[in-house]
Amino acid sequence: MKRHLLSAGDLSREDALLILDTAEELSKVSQRSIKKLPTLRGRTVVNLFFEDSTRTRISFEAAAKRLSADVINFSARGSSVSKGESLKDTALTLEAMGADAVVIRHGASGAPHRLAGWIRGSVINAGDGTHEHPTQALLDAFSIRRAMGRVEGLKVAIVGDVLHSRVARSNVQLLHTLGAEVTLVGPPTLIPVAVDTWPCQVSYDFDAVLPKTDVVMMLRVQQERMNGAYFPSAREYSRRYGLDRDRFAKLHDDAIVMHPGPLNRGMEISAEVADSPRSIIVEQVGNGVLVRMAVLYLLLGGSESAIGGGE
Question: What SUPFAM superfamilies does the record tag this protein with (predicted)?
Answer without folding.
Answer: Aspartate/ornithine carbamoyltransferase
